Amino acid sequence: MKRRFLSDRGAAMVEFAIIAPLLLLVVFGIIEFGRAYNAQNSLTHAAREGAREYAITQDAVAGETTALAAATSLDSTQITVTLSACVPGDPATVTLEYPFQLQIAFFPVSNFTMQSQGVMRCGG
């Protein structure tokens, strides 16, 4: 009986060596998902704020500036802002695009473009 226990020495280390890469992949995947979710949430907030400002003031520059200022956790120099025409009574649309890059390079898709849209009715 004692001999059997002696032969199991090091089994836990081997099992950990097999599981550790998968565990790290899951942990880094969760971190990257959190980063991407935060960026998308910030982009959505910025689009809404830009659309609100644009609909109230009917000033495209003010709408764009507000949208870029509201994206506090993103690099505003990389955000592309597109605004629709603001006719009183019709919806004004502010569309933001942001190129997101994953920090961990071993995922299959490391670069993709996030898009968010804010829509508000233009005031008269």
Question: Could you please describe the fold and organization of this structure?
Answer:
It is rod-shaped, with a radius of gyration of 24 Å. Strands 1-2-3 form a 3-stranded antiparallel beta sheet. The protein is an alpha+beta fold and 124 residues long. The protein has helices at 2-7, 11-57, 60-70; strands at residues 80-83, 91-101, 111-121. The chain has one domain. The chain starts with a helix and ends with a strand. Helix 2 runs antiparallel to helix 3.
Question: How do the helices and strands line up, and which of them pair or pack?
Answer:
Blueprint: H1 2-7, H2 11-57, H3 60-70, E1 80-83, E2 91-101, E3 111-121
Helix pairs in contact: 2-3
Keyphrases for this structure?
single chain; alpha+beta; three-stranded antiparallel sheet; 3 helices; 124 residues; 21% strand; 52% helix
Task: Give a short synopsis of this structure.
With 124 residues, this protein is of the alpha+beta class. It is built from three helices and three strands; from the N terminus they run αααβββ.
Order of helices and strands: HHHEEE
Secondary-structure class: alpha+beta
Largest sheet: 3 strands, antiparallel
Shape descriptor reads rod-shaped
pLDDT averaged residue by residue:
90
| Strands, count | 3
